[in-house]
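Structure in, sequence out. Go:
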């Protein structure tokens, strides 16, 4: 029997629940600790943040920059996003895939920013692009929004009346709009853009499905054009198909064809809805299991308090 999609009441209860995972708590401690280190020792930013002119030989800043928040607001937003969105994604993906997603999206985002900064320097000859310290976890947070777009796209946020599938687009649009008003927001914008795009590429083409043992999510509901309003999709789809062919170059389509997955790099008719349904079912099961576990924990806690009260009497 197929699992029904998560209901609005399930989503509302889960979003308001406080059962954060251990992995998310541990990563939150890392974000806070690195911010404190930079606050106490400002020179540490030279070694931890992404400064394109210093990336060689300090290549490790392609990794460390993603976990370093330079402002208090950045730490608060990233920590809240990690805890609340992480508890939705980790049960579906599993801890190993969850941490793999964070590492890869963080590294690829930093690498894209480094390449872009070097290209801008050689184009404009402005040394500003080489020496500005860039860092922050917001690239991964943007990637998390893409992740929940994939697994629970039709869940409607309480009070806002906005479906989850539009969150990555809204976050990106807000970042672009804010960059016109504040210089600080401009430094965040490349991280948000590349974090969103690289996470979509990973989930679309590279993430291995544990059930089918195949890579990626070829469903039409997760196509690149779904990040845009319907009116733009006839323009976006032809452009996106170019990148699709580039990313699929060299893939072994024959192995996928044998299992009814793709044909010539394009999804077979009927395979997309099935795969999308399976992903939604896994998301719904994870939501329901987490809600059930939290209800049982609450019941046990209430039982212990009642027993203690009786013994005291």
């Amino acid at each position: 029997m197929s699992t029904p999609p998560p209901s609005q009441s399930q989503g509302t209860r889960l979003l308001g629940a406080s059962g954060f995972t251990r992995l998310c708590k541990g990563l939150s401690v890392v974000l806070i600790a690195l911010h404190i280190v930079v606050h106490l020792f400002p020179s540490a930013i030279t070694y931890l943040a992404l400064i394109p002119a210093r990336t060689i030989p300090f290549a490790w800043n392609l990794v460390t920059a993603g976990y370093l928040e330079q402002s208090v607001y950045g730490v608060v937003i990233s920590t809240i996003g990690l805890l609340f969105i992480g508890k939705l994604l980790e049960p579906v993906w599993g801890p190993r895939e969850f941490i793999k997603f964070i590492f890869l999206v963080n590294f690829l985002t930093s690498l894209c920013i480094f390449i872009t900064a070097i290209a801008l320097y050689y184009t404009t000859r402005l040394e500003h692009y080489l020496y500005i310290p860039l860092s922050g976890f917001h690239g991964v947070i943007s990637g998390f929004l893409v992740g929940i777009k994939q697994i629970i796209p039709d869940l409607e946020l309480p009070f806002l009346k906005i479906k989850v599938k539009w969150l990555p687009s809204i976050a990106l649009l807000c970042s672009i709009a804010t960059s016109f008003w504040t210089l600080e927001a401009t430094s965040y914008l490349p991280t948000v853009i590349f974090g969103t795009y690289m996470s979509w590429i990973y989930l679309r083409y590279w993430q291995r499905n544990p059930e089918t043992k195949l890579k990626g999510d070829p469903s039409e509901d997760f196509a690149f054009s779904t990040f845009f309003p319907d009116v733009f999709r006839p323009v976006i789809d032809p452009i996106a198909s170019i990148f699709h062919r580039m990313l699929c170059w060299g893939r072994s389509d024959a192995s996928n064809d044998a299992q009814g997955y793709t044909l010539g790099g394009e999804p077979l008719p009927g395979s997309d809805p099935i795969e999308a349904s399976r992903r939604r079912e896994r998301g719904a099961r994870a939501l329901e299991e987490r809600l059930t576990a939290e209800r049982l924990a609450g019941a046990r806690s209430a039982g212990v308090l009642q027993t203690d009260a009786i013994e005291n009497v």
